[in-house]
Amino acid sequence: MPADTPLFVLALAGLGVGFIVGLTGMGGGALMTPVLVLLFGVDPGKAVGSDLVVSLLMKPVGGGVHLRKGTVHLPLVKWLVVGSVPSAFASVWLFSRIFGDHYNDVVQRAIGVALLLASAGLIAKGAFSGKRHATGDPDHVPVRPIPTLLVGVFGGVAVGITSVGSGSLMMPLLLVLYPVLTAKQLVGTDLVQAVPLVAAASLGHLLFGSVEFGLTAALLLGALPGVWLGAHVSSRSADYVIRPILAVVLIVSGLKMLNVPSMAVGITGLVLSLIAVVMILRSRPTPIVRLAMDAAAE
């Protein structure tokens, strides 16, 4: 556990991240790992390993709900798992062996790249899912084995090295490959395939990397009730507000992970925040804001 960091502070961090995960369905790695590295000074390798163990204990809860409701495309899960499980396990072993003493530096940069990709995926997911038009039967969708397996391989490597990707990176790709699937089927399928994926990545870190068990326990204290609370609030949340804010947070965190100078990160964050505010207002403007926009247009 990070030195001099009280248990309740880590639990609060877990609560906050868990709440956002439950609220948005977004993978926790995109939020938890940068929080641990940037705010608490945890080594990137330990942060990834600990976050994966936390995710491993959270994923089956949501996946079990979707299995009971029948909103999981099991043949699709099979092909994703065939690609993701071996690649997740092998990537941890390869990176730990190839980079040795530079492992943490490489992982930190990989997390930065993954966060930037996740922010793009978050934006693309919102844009694409809102414009989808189902043209087939969502209960009888034929699987495309090779592209699906490749999505699994990509997600496995991303999750194994950075803990980011099971939801943030793979979901937009599944949206493109299977536009006929309903939103519930996509979420359910992604959650169920993520269980063996995260298990393989966690095992890889236990054997070849490092996991801080005290840190993991503290995060779980907050994350489990946080996910439950977020899931219960999610039906009343305004997605058009949450998505741009999360995208900005991911981009800023990714730039910090890549060691971009603080001044550049601050300016980028400010500009993106202004853009996010405009996007939110334009998505659902109030009568006053609408009048102001009309006046400005004149």
Fold and architecture overview:
This protein has 298 residues and is mainly α. It has 2 domains: 10-260, no CATH class; 270-298, no CATH class. The protein has 12 helices and no strands. Helix 4 crosses helix 6, helix 4 runs parallel beside helix 8 and helix 6 crosses helix 8 (183-208). The radius of gyration is 19 Å and the shape is globular. The model is unreliable at 288-298 (pLDDT under 50).
Jot down its keywords:
298 residues, mainly alpha, 79% helix, globular
Secondary structure layout plus pairing:
Layout: H1 7-24, H2 29-40, H3 44-69, H4 74-99, H5 103-129, H6 145-162, H7 170-177, H8 183-208, H9 213-233, H10 239-257, H11 262-283, H12 287-297
